[in-house]
What does this fold into?
Amino acid sequence: MTKLSTKHLLGIKDITLADINLILSTAQSFKEVINRPIKKVPSLRDITIANLFFENSTRTKLSFELAEKRLSADVVNFSSSSSSVKKGETLIDTVNNILAMKVDMVVMRHPNPGAAAFLSKHVNAKIINAGDGAHEHPTQALLDAFSIKEKLGNIKGKKIAIVGDILHSRVALSNIFCLQKLGADVMVCGPTTLMPKYISSLGVKVEHNLQKTLEWCDAANMLRIQLERQEIKYFPSLREYTMLFGLNKELLDSLSKKIIIMHPGPINRGVEITSDVADSSQSIILEQVENGVAVRMAVLFLLAGRN
It folds into this structure.
């Protein structure tokens, strides 16, 4: 297979295992490209891509922008904090104005779940969801899968734990869909108050003890507490959360085996993970960042239909 089964990347739920494997193998080729002295290829030379970020983002936005530039695309950046959206312009108006400028692809992050899917039905451009509320963040799940595969050689049959604020995390949901399609065994761990009600219907194991979770898994993806999405208090204090669900070096070293530590960033050092764990030899957090560019290059390249 050399072509994706879909015109857009709206979520991992909507794509097939063959799509995921194609993206990961294409990303492998692009990873070689970005490690060359000349890191640019002319693959998307005549393609214009608009990055629409209606919500703050540093890493995802930079990663997409770098991927687009490495592929020689023309890039238009739009951030809603300084735009007409503040003056009451609707999502469709904003996008139609951008499309009137003849944009081929739109990378969009939006606080509302389903915004990317809504957009894909109304505008004539390829849409990539860079995060929609607490719903999905497909490229993060793909780069996480790529990073695990690179480190462990395979994902099928591996035990992967996702720890932290599962309720508000689009990374958790996309990761669950992606890892299950690739044949991994998935466990989520965190306070009961931060588990979504539907979690058991996703076929994942649920654990509330961090030590047990870490003894079980081959890789642990530590999520941050998303205080900006929490209208009410889900736990007494950050200090208490850290005592129960924070990963420190002492706990990591006490495990009966070496496991991989991951984090989608930004890290709240000292809350979900201590600095000595984040910077340890078991951490692949910086590899995830590098792999993010290669994976996003692959997604852009494949959606543009370039073979």
